Prior knowledge:
about 425 residues, mainly alpha, disordered C terminus
Amino acid sequence: MRVILIFLVFFYMYTPDLQFLPLSIRVLTGLLGLSLYFIDIVGNAFKTGQDTFFNKNILSFWLCLFLSILYCYGSYFYNLSTDLPYITSLFIRFAILFGSAYFIVRLIRISKIEFNIYHILNTIITVTFIQCVIALLLFVSPEVKSVFDSIQKTARNPLLLALMTKDIGSYRILGFGTEFFGAAIESSFSLISIIAIVRSQHELKGMKIIRYGFTFLFIAFVGILMSRTTFIGILISLIFLHLPNQKNIARSKFLRFIYLILLLMVFSIPYIISNAKYQRTFTFAFEAFINYKDAGTLSTQSSDALKESYYWPQSVKTYIIGDGYMSDPAHPEYYYMATDVGFLRLIYFGGIGYLLIWFSGTIAICKVVYNKIGKESWFFLYSIVLVTYLLIVNLKGLADFYNQLLLVFMVAVTSSAKLDLIIEEKSA
């Protein structure tokens, strides 16, 4: 059953278009989940008792989604925008995420396996690890890449196709249904989650320290090769790890293991970069450090280009209600005002109000889960770190953790009792 769960969570997190399916697995499970949800609503309307999925937290989710979409329509109509596809895709995304997460949790409850917040975070981490293994195999083995390419549809995002024509695909590691900036966000969530789990435990046995440590370093390493933005996730995770945690033996052991392996990796970097076969890949990944060594500036070509993306709105109206565009109306495959910056894209679409709505959704989900699991201090700090990461990374591009957090939210709110937060030997 756990293998099936990992499979479903993998295709919930990542959405490759498969040749033999009319829709992605996330969409299919999302439609099934929405159907089950409405069946449960009808069924529970004739029942009494606590065992119901029709609860106030789920109702609050739909209400918040409805109000957010309503706000988007306000900006759309006020600005006489033509960017209706963004609003439509926004609603579809969250509805499908809800349905798919509901389907997964419904399956867990039917199977009656032990499952709580720790289990779902560990499952997400496992799925990210599997994605990194696949991505590395796709890069080093043409045979494996050929097999995976054969089961995927060839249609891609026009912007991604444009990047491929620049030969980026020859030295950038691409995943199975994820690449570039998105891969960094997914990797960073798992890195932060590993630290949260380690910090939440008073003590972990040696093999668990090694397992979590190896998983952390592997996701970090492959994540960097997929997107240099992963460095932000690594830095935030290490700061999180160093925050005071009184009498936490597990944290101390994990710290020692991580730094021992990092020290070995530092000594191996010159050899890795000098490897002719992968030199371009590693030079790209560690460009900032190479530039710092050569020129004394911790910068990259993309960070220099990012400075040119800060086109601040010139109208007060834009700050209040936005311009109603996420995509350039003349060239929909490109971003409005040619800016990648997450904060600016949100402001340009719906003003500061929409910017606040976007981030308050993450805070609201974390608050619901925090209350549901008994106001555990580890999750409170974990939530702060997640939000801090998003605030930082949105200075570069539009990022969120809604995919991951909606699954965590669904596990929490559909539990009939407060969740057991002790990792037992069989589930850690």
